[in-house]
Amino acid sequence: MMVEKLMEIGNSQLDDNLVEVRSLKKYFDIKKDVTVKSVDDISISIRKGETFGLVGESGSGKSTLGKTLVGLQAPTAGEVIYNGQDVTQLDKETKKLVNKEMQIIFQDPHASLNPRMRVGDIIAEGIDAYKLFKGKERENRIYELLERVGLRAEHAKRFPHEFSGGQRQRIGIARALAVEPKFIVADEPISALDVSIQAQVINLLEDLKDSEDLTYLFIAHDLGMVKHISDRIGVMYLGKMMELSNSDDMFTKPLHPYTQALLSAIPKTDPRAAKRERIVLAGDPPSPTNPPSGCRFRTRCPHAMAICAEQAPPWKEVEPEHWTACHLY
Amino acid sequence: MDHLLEVNNLEVNFKTYGGEVKAVRDVSFHVDKGEVVAIVGESGSGKSVTVQTIMGLIPTPPGIIKGGTIQFQGQDLLSLSKKELRKVKGSKIGMIFQDPMTSLNPTMVVGKQIAEGLITHQNLSKQAAKARAIELIKQVGIPNPEERYGQYPHEFSGGMRQRAMIAIALACNPELLIADEPTTALDVTIQAQVLELMKDLQEQTNTAIILITHDLGVVAETAQRVIVMYGGMMVESGTVLELFENPKHPYTWGLLNSIPDVDGPEKKQLVPIEGSPPDLFSPPKGCPFAPRCKFAMDICVEEMPGAYEIGEGHHAKCWLNDERAPEVDHAFAPKKKEAVAVGSEA
Ligand SMILES: Nc1ncnc2c1ncn2[C@@H]1O[C@H](COP(=O)(O)OP(=O)(O)OP(=O)(O)O)[C@@H](O)[C@H]1O
Ligand SMILES: Nc1ncnc2c1ncn2[C@@H]1O[C@H](COP(=O)(O)OP(=O)(O)O)[C@@H](O)[C@H]1O
Ligand code: SF4
Ligand code: SF4
Ligand SMILES: [Mg+2]
Ligand SMILES: [Mg+2]
């Protein structure tokens, strides 16, 4: 089968990285002469079996990076490397197979499921597109998936509106799992859910990661959950990666002033915690169509220096495995 | 002592195609001068309806205020005429909504919307109202106040709109500020700005605040007292310290066990609340949490628990607090891993 061919190619380039992007750019021309640089020259690698957390303010380019990674959008420039091969250079046939291994779960469980389709058919979208199973086998696969995500076989006949937000998110997860992916981008999978339901979905994602040998890119606003679920974390601001390190280091010794402000802004659930001096950033994020020169964070940075307006800070490994882009280092 | 606001036995229903929804059931609480009281609970638990009833914002029909009283500075708000209520609201109670875009007038410049209240409720001249409005825009931390005065809401960012709403609410120097999820739509760094602003105001002007939020961190950092709602009912209430350290309701335990620990060195195991939020059309005759409660007993399904007094000002509506109820061991002990795991389906 084609899958075997794919595995051979993958094998010939053995390394730890499952997905890698090099100098990735994704620009949108929104008007004549107005371009949004949603992802602007980002290079990261996601290792096999890890959960890579991605955080940053609204509009910083997290979803754009996620969609470009799984091939939902073509990059403006740069490489997307999956299992050692540059996806952008593949022929159509092979690309389709690679894309099958990379799935995405969306933030809004209402908008991402077709209201006129039955749950079983929604889950089988990928199965049908790739012609994986038919008839009885297809049906059994749907039941198996429903049970895998904590729903029941009889749910297959129902429509999305008959489910709660948390259940709909489970349907989205089952749809992603249907084609046996290796890599899943979870784009704010819990933001639309109640606190009591968020933990259900997080625990499910963690279970599935172990049982199905998955690798995740987990995008979120909730820094607490990102810390909980991620092995490494990347912080984005206005289309650029600001900092990257393992989850513990990011929370105990953040290097970049933006990360420091972001962490200091998290409300703590300990009512006895000493009243902290919080770093409150002045102002709003600048418009992504007209980002500041030099360092994009400089208009809100409490440490900004003259050089910050002149030169973009280089992406640098300041400590082992701990990267940042800031002139302070 | 007389409370600034006192709500007693409030009952609000909505007539819908599916039947009558019991949105708020027997809600009683008070707010004192200068206090921050938080209301938490999942979506649909009746938080917004509760405060909208205080503000006289419930459309009737489909809403029906079945019973209860709302005393504000000794006046029963529910018995006031529309005109009288508008006067109280305009001069003493301010409100901030989750989505400022729906409550700001998109066709009027932001400055005028702030000045309007000053002219009608404080009898300021046009000139004086404009000057005061610019001052307020500055006070809520929006740069270039003169220029911003003449801009429309769509020219503001989300955080700036929320601050403009706060400026409108503050224009009347309210005794009570009601904030319904004021930061839910905002990024954390902007949320920090807005919360800081609200806290400053409360400290400087001794304004009381009712803060609806689903973020327990926001509760811990800003409120003195908390009300936990579930299925239209208040299931637990008390001081923030009591609620976080000595919670007495399984739903509160569930909430606290569902959130990760940001500061802890070790990874805490999340224990979710299984099942889905309740159906308000036909609430069970017993405890609304019973279908999801790991500790439910036969009586829970049969009979509604009363509000047990745990300590001063700390109440929990749960049969487990009855002296005849069995002991539940280690049902809740945040931050200790082995204790947290107890009660999950092991
Ligand atoms: N299809 C598109 N056309 C034009 N602009 C776009 C498109 N998709 C994204 N953008 C712009 O790119 C920038 C980054 O958007 P993106 O959705 O990636 O942000 P995000 O970090 O996921 O934000 P959020 O936290 O709000 O989901 C934004 O300025 C957005 O308006
Ligand atoms: N105008 C309305 N018409 C019908 N039902 C309503 C209306 N407003 C609120 N409700 C219902 O009342 C219940 C409580 O809602 P709400 O107070 O908005 O919850 P929340 O706690 O999320 O703020 C929900 O079931 C909601 O659907
Ligand atoms: S490069 Fe300069 S402006 Fe940017 S984060 Fe570092 S110190 Fe601040
Ligand atoms: S009254 Fe019963 S069902 Fe309700 S919370 Fe208490 S133990 Fe659980
Ligand atoms: Mg996004
Ligand atoms: Mg609400």
TrEMBL record, chain B:
It holds the Pfam family ABC_tran. It is found in: Cell membrane. Gene3D superfamilies: P-loop containing nucleotide triphosphate hydrolases (3.40.50.300). One of its GO terms (molecular function) is ATP hydrolysis activity. Keywords: ATP-binding, Cell membrane, Membrane, Nucleotide-binding, Transport. InterPro entries: AAA+_ATPase, ABC_Ni/Peptide_Import, ABC_transporter-like_ATP-bd, ABC_transporter-like_CS, Oligopep_ABC_C, P-loop_NTPase. It is a peripheral membrane protein. This is ABC transporter ATP-binding protein. GO terms for cellular component: plasma membrane. Belongs to the ABC transporter superfamily. Residues 5-256 form the ABC transporter domain. It comes from Planococcus salinus. Coiled coil: none annotated. It comes from the Bacteria. One of its GO terms (biological process) is peptide transport.
